[in-house]
Amino acid sequence: MIWLGIETANAPLSVAVVKDGKVMAEVVQNIKLTHSAGAMPAIETILANVGVKPNELDAIAVSEGPGSYTGVRIGVTLAKTLAWTLQKPLVGVSSLKVLAANATLFDGLICPIFDARRGNVYTAVYKGTELDVVIEDYHDHIDGLLARLKALAAPILFVGTDVDVFWDKIVGVLEQNAYRAALHEDLPRASAAILLASAEELPSIEAVHHFTPQYKRIAEAEANWLKEQKEQTHEQ
Amino acid sequence: MGEFIMENRVILAIESSCDETAAAIIRNGSEIVSNVVASQIESHKRFGGVVPEIASRHHVEQITIVIEEALKQANMKPSDLDAVAVTEGPGLVGALLIGINAAKAFAFANNIPILGVHHIAGHIYANALVQPMEFPLLALVVSGGHTELVYMKEHGSFEVIGETRDDAAGEAYDKVARVLGLPYPGGPRIDQLAHEGQEAVAFPRVWLEEGSYDFSFSGLKSAVINYKHNMDQRSEEISPTAVAKGFQESVVEVLTAKTLRAAREYNVKQVIAAGGVAANKGLRTSLEKVFAKEGIPFFVPPLKLCTDNAAMIGAAATPMFEAGIRGNMMMNGRPGMELKSWVD
């Protein structure tokens, strides 16, 4: 069973090939290269390096969001198109869970964070080697998240390169319960996406067409429009 | 480069530069084997215009469905294709990226080359799907995002001899439609009202410096807004048909006169109109009339090839493919891509 994993949900890029439960190759990078320019060449190179032809792949795993809207869409578009044209199943996994999977041995809670701008974050809280969900993937202001985390009153490990943006605030609220992941745990790995995906039941090939990113946030224009609709109904 | 000769060249084309997710299969640059367009217009209507983030979200939902449908309607497999062509720019970057990344994944998985096509070259080459292009040729490209006069001395040679300095013609149509309280997209509705009108409000014609082939429509748009404002202040009702007729007459007169002057100066064998506004009845009729009198063949593609589609991208890509042009897996979306010749 040969898997291709694709992770482009935020600034870092990762692609991996896993065969029969072994990582054959993995690329993890965090450089100033757009995913549009970098992702497809990385997939091409890694498959050439491991000597696997596209049609020899058995399944594809993709980090489905949340994260950068454009980043998520590039990974999902590549994964969807490959899966559809090769007629292979596609499994999506939470980009937050992929990052949390770097730190499952932490004795406490694991909190991956992506900067969603203007003081907002995409985040979740997981626990243990099975990554049991304590708080589901969602979008929140950092203050809202920290209030929820404080109430959990437990040691929490923060994972991700974006944690640095909020670190002072995190320590200010959680004090000695705030732990910072090691630098090698901060970048998401496509092999982790494959590991998580391979635990799922494989969806049908037909499901590929209807695969969509998990933005965890509606578009701003749509939010405003819904608000207007609500106000109008209220006035009537 | 002169005429290109092809034998059963089949290209899959993908277009996602704005609010249509489209795929088509084109044989020999002239025959539409299939042409599929998933329009998002109903979704964007809510906002009174295209919202880039919403457009990107729809593209990612539709892209594989649209490509599959194009293959299905053509009764073809990926192995029947010689290349995949995709709009590289200009357009909304997030929207372009969906088509580009789908094209890359498709090309890689099926081991066929990829080509990046300029959206405006596509609009011009929509004409090749109707009748052979004869050079030298002059193209008037008019749409929601573009107003350009392009001179082509041969395939792949594009010289922009005039362009808008502010609003695109279609943009002015949509803005004036908003002033008149017409629903989005307002362009076609203005065309309709203009035909119903008897009287026309007198609006200025903007010619710019003598000899210039450039256009400017923002002054005209402001004139319409001021007119409405003044009438409102005097509590007088405006006649939407008279405003539409006056506005359209100004746009059409300038576009027609400049196109005619350029056609004469460059001594072209063919004049073509392209882009969404080329479907405008007032503009089409005016251009047909002057070029019939002038004795220069004039063509406009049918409506479904004037608005954004992938068939035109396949038509533009075919002579590029024959000339040996290939893209690569680093291709990025180019929102401000310039129309450049691909021949010397």
TrEMBL record, chain A:
GO terms of biological process kind: tRNA threonylcarbamoyladenosine modification
Domain Gcp-like as annotated: residue spans: 31-225
Any GO MF annotation of the entry: transferase activity
Signal sequence region: none
Keywords in alphabetical order: Transferase
One of the record's GO cellular component terms: cytosol
PANTHER family in the cross-refs: TRNA N6-ADENOSINE THREONYLCARBAMOYLTRANSFERASE, TRNA THREONYLCARBAMOYLADENOSINE BIOSYNTHESIS PROTEIN TSAB
Protein's name according to its UniProt entry: tRNA (Adenosine(37)-N6)-threonylcarbamoyltransferase complex dimerization subunit type 1 TsaB
Upper classification of the organism: Bacteria, Bacillati, Bacillota, Bacilli, Bacillales
